[in-house]
Amino acid sequence: MTKRIKSKHKVDRRLGANIWGRPKSPFNSRAYGPGQHGQRSSAKPSDYKVQLQAKQKLKNYYGNLNERQFRNLYREADRRRGNTGENLVGLLESRLDAVIYRAKFATTVFQARQLINHGHVKVNGKRVNISSFKLNDKDEVEIKESSKQLTYVLASTQLKERDVPEYIVADHKKMTAKLARVPKFDEIPYPAIMEPNLVVEYYSR
Q1: What are phi and psi of 142, to 5 degrees?
Q2: Fold assignment, 95-181
Q3: Using one digit for the tens of pLDDT, what is the confidence trace for 55-93?
Q4: Do the Cβ atoms of 39 and 103 come closer than 8 Å?
Q5: CB 173: neighbour CB atoms within 10 A?
Q6: Fewest CB atoms less than 10 Å from the CB: which of 108, 136, 173, 176?
Q7: Higher local confidence (pLDDT), 70 or 20
Q8: Structural domain spans, the chain
Q9: CATH number of 8-32+43-92+189-203
């Protein structure tokens, strides 16, 4: 599991966006970088910086994947037919931790990863503790029977802040979910502007 050392609040402000859509993010009231020099105006960012920030936003949104993991996902997306940016976000949304989060069994991707790592999740009846496990449309995800009454899981399913997207089939009574299909980029409910095309440009340099 990737450990986050830096504050999520600072990540928002450094990247110039409330990337997780949290109502208490300080970026909502202080839309500038952290630190004593955060408010200083700067010159127009270079193309490289714009591409790097786009990559960092997408990478951080999915639980701050390490660079090796993210680059490998890009390489797989690039090998596939079709638009590389679309392929990349499709691969990210097919991860087990992303599906647990989208199905509202966890309030954040970080919490979803913890749920998986602690052995509370099954895929097709078998316990899976690997957050990056890739799902297809035939796989059924289930919260383990003894974990279905976990307070934070039940609380997450009741959240009104976000809905389960159409490409996820979730049953909150049975605590099961399926990835109905790999989503297109414009179907994914990102709370901040994501630009996978710039991520492709970054890695294509």
Answers
A1: -145, 140
A2: 3.10.290
A3: 999 999 998 899 999 999 999 999 999 999 999 999 999
A4: no
A5: 7
A6: 173
A7: 70
A8: 8-32+43-92+189-203, 95-181
A9: 1.10.1050.10
